[in-house]
Amino acid sequence: MPSTHNKDKPWDVPTIDKWHEPEFKQEDNISGQPFTEESSFATLFPKYREAYLRQVWGDVTRTLEKKGIACVLDLVEGSMTVKTTLKTYDPAAILKARDLIKLLARSVPYPQAVKILEDDAMACDVIKIGNLVGNKERFIKRRQRILGPNGNTLRALELLTQCYILVQGNTVAVMGAYKGLKEVRRVVEDCMRNVHPIYHIKELMIKRELAKNPELANESWDRFLPHFKKRNVQRRKPKVVKEKKPYTPFPPPQQPRQIDLQMDSGEYFLSKREKSQQADAKRREQREERKEERKKEREKDFVPPQEENEIKKNRRKHKRKADEP
Predict the structure, then answer these.
(1) Phi, psi at residue 201, to the nearest 5°?
(2) pLDDT in tens, 77-107
(3) Where do runs of H (alpha helix) occur along 45-165?
(4) What is the per-residue pLDDT across 291-303, written as a single tens digit (0 to 9) for each?
């Protein structure tokens, strides 16, 4: 018997978005009672963020109060804390408040960070890149690749992934859809592993054009995507030719010990007090020599240049001396 349930439903129309999540309001909390347990999250922030957080904390407090979330800024310990109250009605609000303080701690400006509280498909990710490269100079160079010249690479990534990206210190803060967050994390981690972001940007551009073609929706895109080969060209070091010493069957002469040198100079027989006095006198002499050198360097600027007449006279004198037998 054919099924009678596979009928077209009256709400199955293309104008309805089935994946849209409506905003969670206070009326949606059916029980109407406060939560049985208090949930709280805390995060630390660096010292240089203290002035900015103090400036915007009033706006943060007013925004979280609408969601029934309490927040505390501790300037002594350098931490931010969010926790539920008796007025909290949305169970997911505390998780979004946690993401808000995490973004504020990583230098994301408040007008951008507050978008995480919206109920649309907005998520965030803080990618840690500090421990991916051991050498500090190499780390700075690879982190600069994410930004690119004048920030062009970062802007291209933001346009292709529809995400907000902020590179700060040892982390990269990202805000956007889940799919975009996944792409950005792959690009950033590969960049710190010495894969240039331009390769991923080319791939993302091709994918965006392929997505516009409905015929390729159920096909593999591997034949369209570029496959780059890794070319690790080793730089040749300059060849240094060492001079071969003539071969001798005899071992090199034994070098004198430090005690022998002290006995030859008479320092070995001096007392501790005499040795310290001698070392002080040597240091004093070196200090005086350096002082004289600095004085000469400073006086160079005040030495008047030779005039043309004096230079000509000196040349004539040298010529006369050269002509004399």
Answers:
(1) -65, -40
(2) 999 999 999 888 888 889 999 999 999 999 9
(3) 50-66, 93-105, 110-113, 136-147, 152-161
(4) 999 988 888 877 7
